[in-house]
Amino acid sequence: MFSRRKLPNQLPGEKVIKHVRRDLFILFKNVAFLVFLVILPMLILWMILSIYPNLKYGEISYPLMILSGSAYYLFVWIFFFFSFIDYYLDLWIVTNRRIINIEQRGFFSRIISEQKLYRIQDVTIETRGIFPTVLKYGSVFVQTAGTKRNFHFEEVPHPDQIKDTIISLVQKDLRRHRGDKKDYE
Amino acid sequence: MTFPLYYLLYGYYAFLVLWGVIFFVAVYHMLRFSLKNFTSLLVCFVFIGVSAVIFLISFDYINAINWDIEVTILENIINSTKY
Questions:
Q1: HEC profile for A73-121?
Q2: Closest residue in chain B to residue A77, using alpha carbons only
Q3: Could you give the ipTM of this predicted complex?
Q4: Which DSSP string do the residues of B11-71 spell out, in sequence order?
Q5: Which of A3, A63, A85 sits opposite B30 (nearest CB)?
Q6: pTM for the full model?
Q7: Can you give the pLDDT at residue A1?
Q8: Where does the pLDDT of residue A183 fall: very low under 50, low under 70, confident under 90, or very high at 90 and above?
Q9: Across the interface, do B65 and A81 touch by the CB < 8 Å criterion?
């Protein structure tokens, strides 16, 4: 675990401005899918038992139903936890000096990248589709100088506010950086 | 073909072993890589709690079954191929 106040490789005078996760609607979609997966076999079982009621008393059919039901629900639950981890461990941290992108890809792949604010050249937002437009979530693309990979904040809430925050921080950091350079020269 | 019913449990136990490995990896990831806050701990607690509830309900049903009986399957098919 790492603390909100103590970032990895924290720079002197660095303050966390914003933590950004995907919009809660993404989590809601996962929960809705979980509910669907929980209800679905109950409906199927109810339909099958209404056609073949004797299956409930079968020497082999009843134990099979119990074992497969238990395995199914354990699988569904861990599948949901996987998707929750994917949601929860993807994190973008905006500080007054840099942007840190922490991305969980499956269980054994984790990418942590960072970009100094003064290197940022352009910030673009994209809201596409009915739900993102109504619920005000979308993507933020952060373009940097050089051939380095751009940052992509995926399905984050209020992308316009994030864009404004980043642009304002970039301008402040650029002023600070130019000031440092003059002092250095 | 006749076999004791508890043979079915072996397949279930094999699944549980695999599930247990994934379970520990999931909890480890959550504790190792999440933010140090109440939400992370609550999520782990809920995940473990719900898993325990599924186990308890499952074992309640499983214990009620007599696994020592012998069951016969595919008898008609095997007999029909003999003649």
A1: HHHHHHHHHHHHHHHHHCEEEEECCEEEEEEECCCCCEEEEEEEHHHEE
A2: B51
A3: 0.86
A4: HHHHHHHHHHHHHHHHHHHHHHHSBSSHHHHHHHHHHHHHHHHHHHHHHHHHHTS-TTSEE
A5: A85
A6: 0.81
A7: 60
A8: very low
A9: no
